[in-house]
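Q: What would this complex look like in 3D?
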Amino acid sequence: MNGSTKFRAVSQFLQGSDETTAEDVSSRYNRGMRDARQILDQTYLEMRWRCLSLAADFDRIERATGGADVIANDPRLANLREAMKMIGDQSVSRAEFLQMILSDK
Amino acid sequence: MKFIDPHIHCVSRTTDDYQYMARCGVVAVSEPAFWAGYDRSTASSFGDYFRHLLDVEPLRAAKYGIDHYAWLCINAKEAENVELAREVIKLIPPLLDHPRVLGVGEIGLNKNTANEIKIFEEQVEMAAKYDQMILIHTPHLQDKHKGTRIITDILKNDKRIKPHRVLIDHCEEHTIRIARENGFWSGLTVYPVTKVTPQRGCDILEQFGTDMICVNSASDWGESGPSNLTDTYLEFRRRGNSEEAATDVFYNNPCRFFGQSPKWKLKPIGMATG
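A: Here is my prediction, written as structure tokens for the whole assembly.
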């Protein structure tokens, strides 16, 4: 599509509003590299539900028979607690640091 | 195993989904009127949409052996346009006797605005006047808790509304008590990105029991699908729950709620295990 081509989107056609240029459409569909805000906008809901899933995982373990003991003492859950703290505190390379928390020492 | 998906937007789904549901044992669905992903410009658009829900989709579903029912309303998002919403509401009463209409829904709130609340109240009034069951849409994400409170307060304050004839849908961990403690049916929507996952859905069933809870996929034009319902069944069974308990959740409970309408023909099967 030529960048100078003029056309109207269907909603604009129906409303009798101004033409859109191909550049407008290009900027909508071919964004190129995303900035931080765009990445967060596109990823937030998935981050949110993964966080909820992890909370529910802990709850489910705690509700089960022997749950209090496992929650308090299992070293794998201790690793995950450390990981969650690290995710909040660390400034870069969170995934790398997390892998090391979860690796044999 | 037979399933009912009590909330699915078939108009947004492909024939592949119907084939999937048929293969999995889905024998009936109910489809509330909802936001199509864009705001419609005229009431006549809704008239056509209602015709699609009542005359077209049941025939499409029947090709796969699936019994299709619907609910009518103007959804909460488009209710923001009060003038349009009132025109749409006028279309609904003559359609309520249609054999495929189970009631008024999915009404509720989206962003908890004054306009949404106004139109919600007007649709509750319509449901009460015509003695209809109600299917409630609760808001998404950060608006859900406050919106669920507003909705249930409005419903409780109208003494004509019988809670057992209302299903509060899209409940999650922080809202299901509001529905249950006030005597309403509740719905769990397995829609992992914005609602619950199969695992969290089963957690809620285990914590609150299976009485007066329906599980649905609310499959629509977003990242959703009818397999979320059957995946939840598999998770439920994987945890050691019996086939009878699963039948109660995934088949009998929708029959019990919808069966309050004489138009709904399917009956609960097997023995309930509670």
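A: To summarize the key features: Residues 43-62 of chain B form the longest helix (20 residues). The CA atoms of residues 66 and 91 of chain B lie 27 Å apart.
Q: Very helpful, thank you.
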